[in-house]
Amino acid sequence: MMKQIKVIQIGLGPLGQKIVSYAVRRNGIEVIAAVDPAPDKAGKDLSKLCHLDKEVGITVSPDVNSAIKKNKPDVALLATVSNLEKIVPQIEEIIRYGINVVSTCEELAFPWIKEPELSRKLDEMAKKHNVAILGTGVNPGFLMDFLPIAFTGICQEVKSIKVSRIQDASIRRVPFQKKIGAGLTLEEFGQKKQAGTLRHVGLTESIHMIASRMGWKVDRTEDILTPVIAKSEAHPHLSPLSHPPDGSPSLRGRTEEGGEIPAGMAAGVQQIGKGYVNGEEKITLEFRASIGEKNPRDTIEIKGEPDITSTIAGGVNGDIATCAVIINAIRSIINVTPGLKTMVDIPVVSFFKSV
Amino acid sequence: MMKQIKVIQIGLGPLGQKIVSYAVRRNGIEVIAAVDPAPDKAGKDLSKLCHLDKEVGITVSPDVNSAIKKNKPDVALLATVSNLEKIVPQIEEIIRYGINVVSTCEELAFPWIKEPELSRKLDEMAKKHNVAILGTGVNPGFLMDFLPIAFTGICQEVKSIKVSRIQDASIRRVPFQKKIGAGLTLEEFGQKKQAGTLRHVGLTESIHMIASRMGWKVDRTEDILTPVIAKSEAHPHLSPLSHPPDGSPSLRGRTEEGGEIPAGMAAGVQQIGKGYVNGEEKITLEFRASIGEKNPRDTIEIKGEPDITSTIAGGVNGDIATCAVIINAIRSIINVTPGLKTMVDIPVVSFFKSV
Question: Which CATH class is domain B5-137+320-341?
Answer without folding.
Answer: alpha beta
